[in-house]
Amino acid sequence: MNVHGVTLDSDQRRVFGEAPLIGSHSLHELELFSDDCLAALLDRHPREHLYALTMGNDPTRWDENRLALHDGLSGRELLTAVKRGRLWLNVKRVDEHEPEYARIVRELYEQLMTLVPGFTVDAVKTTLLISSPRALVYYHVDGAPSLLWHLRGEKRVWMYPALDERFIARELLEDIHAGVAHEYVPYEPHFDRHAQARVLVPGQFASWPQNAPHRVTNLDSLNVSLNTEHYTPASRRRARVYSANRFLRTKLKIFDLSTNERGLRAYAKSVLHRGASLAGLDERTMKRHVPTMRIDLTAELCVRPLRGTSKSSQKRRRKPSSAGATATRRST
Fold this sequence. Notes:
This protein is α+β, with helices and mostly antiparallel strands. It has a domain at 10-164 and 186-231 and 287-316: Cupin (Jelly Rolls, Sandwich), CATH 2.60.120. The protein contains nine helices and 14 strands. The chain has helices spanning 10-15, 35-44, 75-84, 94-97, 99-115, 170-178, 233-251, 264-278, 311-316; strands at residues 21-24, 50-54, 66-69, 87-92, 123-131, 136-140, 146-152, 155-159, 196-200, 204-207, 214-218, 223-231, 293-295, 303-305. A ten-stranded mixed β-sheet has the order 1-10-7-12-5-4-2-3-13-14. Helix 2 (35-44) crosses helix 3 and helix 7 (233-251) packs across helix 8 (264-278).
C-alpha cells in the first residue's frame, strides 16, 4: 500500500523548516498502528532499542524523567502498562528493523522533497512513540531537524523560537550538538507567552525549525506517533560549527565565537575541530542514562523504583536518569 496524502499549502511550503507549522498526512489510516500490530512489533523489536520512560506532572521538573526497565514483559503487557500508567515508549531504529516502516518513511520524505523546493535529505532516523494518557515530554531541544507524525490520540505541542538565547543558552546548544548534554534544558512557564501551541490529532504532523525548543503533553487517550529525524547539508553544517565552537570554548578558552554556518571561518573551524578529534584532542564523555524504575503491572501507575533507589534520591537529581544517551531522544 502506498502512503499518500502529505499536504502542505503554498505558504507552508515556503516556510517549511524555517517556521513552526502543522501539515497533514494519511498515515494514520494504516492497520500498522493498531494494538495488535503494535504488540507484535514490541515482541519482535530488539529490546536494546526500546526505552520506557516515566515522568512527573510538573513540566518544569525535568529531573523527574526516569528510565524504567521492561525486561520479561510481552508486547501486549507493555501496551497495557502504557494504557494504565504514565509511560512513554521510545521504539528506536524502527526503520532499520521493520521494512514496512522503512518504506513508509521513504515515501513520506519523497513526497516532502517534491512539495518543498530545495528540501533534500541524506539520512533519516525513525522512532515509534507509544505513550500514556496525560503523559508529557519535557521542554527540550533536538540536535537534528525532526518531524512529528501523529497517528492515534491527541496531544498538545508547544513550539518555541529557535536559536534564541532567551529559551536556550548558546553554550548548552553547543553541548547538545557535541553529544555531551541531554536534550532537556531549563524551562520556565513564562516561555509559553512566546510559544505556538497546537493540539495534534491523527492525520497531522508538526514541523519546527532545527533546534527550536518544544514540549508535549498528551490529552486523555493513548497516543501513537512517529518521530523522524532527518539530516541535510545545512543541518550537518550547523552541527559542525556548534561542535567546533564548543571545542574552542572548552579546550582553547576562546569565547563568543560566531555561529555563522557558511564562509571561510566556519569552514576553518570545522576543519580544525575535525583534525583535533582525529588526533584525540577532543575527548568527550557522552551522556548516559541509568534506569531507576521498573515496569510492574501490579504497581501504582505500573512502575516501581528499583531496589536501592529511593524516591527522595530521585528527586535530588537535577538531570534526567535513564539508559543510553539516545534513550530520551525523539520523545516529542
